[in-house]
Amino acid sequence: MPQESLQQQNSFFTSPSKRGLKGLVSINKEASITATEESFNDHELAQRKAEEAASRRYQATEWLRQMDHVAFASLSPQPSEEDFSLSLRNGLILCNVLNKVNPGSVPKVVEKPALAIQSAEGAAHSAIQYFENMRNFLEAVKDMQLLTFEASDLEKGGSSNKVVDCILCLKGFYEWKLSGGVGVWRYGGTVRITSFPKKSPSSIVGSESADESLDELDSSQYEQLLEFLHLSEDFLIEETRTANALAFLFDHFGLRLLQAYLRETNGIEDLPLNAMVIDTLLSKVVKDFSSLLVTQGTQLGLFLKKILKGDIGCLSKREFIEAISLYLNQRSSLASNDFSKFCICGGKRDSIRQNANYSSKYAEVINIQQKQLEGMKYFFEETKLEVQHMHSEWEQELSRLVHHIKSLEVASSSYHKVLEENRLLYNQVQDLKGAIRVYCRVRPFLPGQSNVTSTVDYIGENGDMMVVNPLKHGKDSRRVFSFNKVFGTSVTQEQIYADTQPLIRSVLDGYNVCIFAYGQTGSGKTYTMSGPDLTTEETWGVNYRALRDLFHISKEREDSIKYEVFVQMIEIYNEQVRDLLVIDGSNRRYPLINYLS
Ligand SMILES: Nc1ncnc2c1ncn2[C@@H]1O[C@H](COP(=O)(O)OP(=O)(O)OP(=O)(O)O)[C@@H](O)[C@H]1O
Fold it and tell me: What spacing in Å lies between the alpha carbon of 462 and ligand 1's midpoint?
């Protein structure tokens, strides 16, 4: 459908690649519109075109009325085509509006409201009187490379559509400028390419509503079209850079803002950062970024006007470009103007554009580096604080440890003192008990000796023992012997060792101790000193129990004292000393030492 095709063409602001393609697409669609139009009812089509033209005319009129008080007074909100042309024919409204859009474009405007007689009869006189206005307006518009029209288009039989196109184009340019002049601009839904050939046929560039169909394109227009498409490619490259820079700026700024929200918004940590929350935050960021662009554009405009000393009201093109260069240099030196290169639209002199690009790129690099530096500085400060904090914590911990160690030292020295005292007392007790102690153990009868009568008559608690000699009579038959202690036949190995054990500890405190068994053959010396069964701990004799305690105590004291234990086991038999630890059966004579641990 033709209407749909037009809507599709009018409803985009797409990526550069899509826009690059659009030049071709729009022409093809216009051709298809022309072909399809024939199948439509002529009347219906004409009516629709008239409605569309009227709608665009009202749109242009509304804007003119907003921009200029003369237009407000002389133009009705919805003028007929004739009234519209008549009101604009003297060029006064157009010049006034153009000077507002681009101050100084028409330096001299013939302004005699009294003579602005709005009547069909006075049109010729008015056209002559204000011919200068119209000429100046058309030249200025052409200089600005906007859509233009012929003066005759405002006369009877002329095409007011071209005039409407020119005004809407001017409107689009004005709005684009107000929003900061970034990138490309559009009017009536059509992207305006800001790059033109030296002799640009501005009347066809981007003019969707032009009445001409593809069929009507003559060869020169076709060449112009090809030139336009070629230039579109150049523009495409330039615009891709612009788009990349904008994408970078947005990413940088957007992510910074997002980061700031996440850091500074209270209670955000309670929110689950799911896709919906991220989307919401990002849409807020996008909104902020958009408003920043608009604000920045407005401020830029104000700043430029200030630099240009707006009260002068007019400057030559060269002066204006010089002022922009000056402004860019100032902004570059401040290293904070990411948008500077977009302030100059395409189509200007190459040298100016290159300077602006270099300046802008330089500013961009400096800006990025400065931001990185700021980030590093911030990070450095944070790390420094962290290190200082850790340092003070370590110092506190260290002083606590030093204090603790000192108190331990004090406690340790006291402990050693007490321990020493304890040892002294202990060994004094052992001395008091007697340096030489003699114990007597009575061996039970061996199996098979049950009929024999024991010679031990009585064993006293104080170490006395009475022995009966059946071969003697009277007083001589009984004799009493005194020992430190007498152990009866039922005493266990453990009980025997209990009286010996304290002496083992004295050995480790540096006292000399000697334990030996004495008695006739078969009296139980081996039984008492070694024990009948080494595999059973219960039956261990004095030797093994003493060694076990020695190793146990030396283990307990290993942190403070290191003991070396040597063992030797000897037997004195028939007045000969023999080594009992020799295992080859040679019974080598003393001294021979075996090292145990
Ligand atoms: N208190 C005891 N209870 C039970 N049996 C014992 C006791 N003392 C010794 N005997 C037993 O008496 C026997 C002789 O003991 P043992 O060999 O110890 O004597 P001895 O003095 O070492 O002899 P020798 O001097 O000839 O070596 C062994 O059979 C031993 O088991």
Answer: 25
